[in-house]
């Protein structure tokens, strides 16, 4: 009994910490550089070309503005606009560690995606820009958990959902107060439709990373559909997975992303 009582408080403390810290989100893949995040402190941002001198307020402001400024669609190509009513992003976040049973796996989704596709006759000439508003992420909706599979069958309480979302949007992760959106822009496409690989730049909370993402594309008249289903490590995106008790209770570095984009011609 004495041994059990001695460990009761640390175990309860760890469980409470996971509920408050929760997990996190957003979108990325196999790797050229980046990957989404879970609760924890963000890693230092990778330097970008022509960046102002690090460490000054002006440098931080200029860099944040550069990462968040949306590019215009390319001239000379048909522009397809992303339909937020038909598009969505889902992020599957998993618990880990020897005390993982005290936590939850989470499904985080966003149905407010916007942006454009500059569609060329061949994939190599196509480009796109995607904006994902941080405030529109929803944690553990019942329908999303049911669709995600049996591993998400466990019910998650409202306190755990709210704690996860609050931590995800806080300054240690997505920092939604200073970075309202996650931005994804294409750099290049490889392969031939329908199976492509997209080299993309992802800006999350002031960090920019590059990734290679597998994408399946279909065209039907004036409608374009692109889907992607892949895994990525949070640390690839410059974010640090949440961890307590020397890692006995933590958020797994690897997350899964499922993206569906539907775009229609202007």
CATH architecture type: Beta Barrel
Large-scale geometry: globular
Low-confidence stretches: 1-67
CATH topology: Lipocalin
Radius of gyration: 19 Å
- Count of structural domains: 1
Give me the strand/helix succession.
HHEEEEEEEHHEEEEEEE
Structure description:
- A hairpin with a 4-residue loop joins β12 (243-244) and β13 (249-251).
- α1 (2-21) crosses α4.
- The radius of gyration is 19 Å and the shape is globular.
- The strands form 2 sheets. Strands 1-5-6-8-9-10-11-14 form an 8-stranded antiparallel beta barrel.
- The protein is built from 4 helices and 14 strands.
- The chain starts with a helix and ends with a strand.
- It is an alpha+beta fold and 266 residues long.
- It has helices at residues 2-21, 57-68, 142-148, 158-169; strands spanning 79-82, 88-93, 95-96, 106-110, 114-118, 127-133, 138-139, 181-192, 195-204, 207-220, 223-233, 243-244, 249-251, 254-265.
- It has a single domain (2-265), classed as Lipid/polyisoprenoid-binding, YceI-like (Lipocalin, Beta Barrel), CATH 2.40.128.
How are the SSEs ordered, and which strands pair?
Layout: H1 2-21, H2 57-68, E1 79-82, E2 88-93, E3 95-96, E4 106-110, E5 114-118, E6 127-133, E7 138-139, H3 142-148, H4 158-169, E8 181-192, E9 195-204, E10 207-220, E11 223-233, E12 243-244, E13 249-251, E14 254-265
Antiparallel strand pairs: 1-5, 1-14, 2-4, 2-14, 3-13, 4-7, 5-6, 6-8, 8-9, 9-10, 10-11, 11-14, 12-13
Question: Main traits of this protein?
Answer:
266 residues, 8-stranded antiparallel β-barrel, Lipocalin, 4 helices, disordered N terminus, globular, 19% helix
């Amino acid at each position: 009994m004495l041994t059990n009582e001695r460990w009761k408080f640390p175990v309860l403390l760890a469980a409470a910490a996971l509920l408050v810290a929760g997990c996190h989100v957003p979108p990325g893949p196999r790797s050229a550089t980046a990957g989404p995040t879970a609760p924890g402190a963000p890693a230092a941002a990778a330097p970008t070309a022509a960046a102002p001198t690090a460490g000054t307020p002006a440098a931080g402001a200029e860099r944040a503005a550069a990462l968040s400024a949306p590019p215009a669609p390319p001239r000379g190509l048909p522009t397809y606009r992303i339909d937020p009513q038909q598009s969505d992003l889902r992020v599957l976040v998993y618990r880990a560690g020897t005390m993982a049973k005290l936590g939850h796996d989470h499904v985080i989704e966003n149905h407010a995606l916007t942006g454009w596709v500059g569609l060329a006759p061949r994939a190599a000439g196509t480009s796109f820009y995607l904006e994902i508003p941080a405030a529109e992420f929803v944690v553990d909706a019942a329908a999303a958990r049911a669709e995600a599979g049996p591993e998400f069958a466990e019910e998650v309480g409202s306190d755990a959902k709210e704690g996860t979302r609050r931590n995800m949007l806080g300054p240690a992760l997505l920092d939604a107060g200073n970075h309202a959106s996650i931005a994804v822009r294409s750099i290049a496409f490889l392969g031939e439709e329908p199976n492509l690989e997209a080299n993309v730049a992802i800006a999350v909370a002031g960090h920019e990373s590059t990734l290679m993402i597998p994408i399946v594309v279909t065209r039907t008249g004036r409608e374009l559909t692109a889907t992607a289903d892949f895994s990525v490590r949070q640390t690839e995106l410059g974010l640090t997975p949440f961890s307590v008790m020397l890692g006995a209770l933590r958020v797994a570095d690897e997350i899964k992303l499922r993206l569906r984009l539907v775009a229609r011609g202007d």
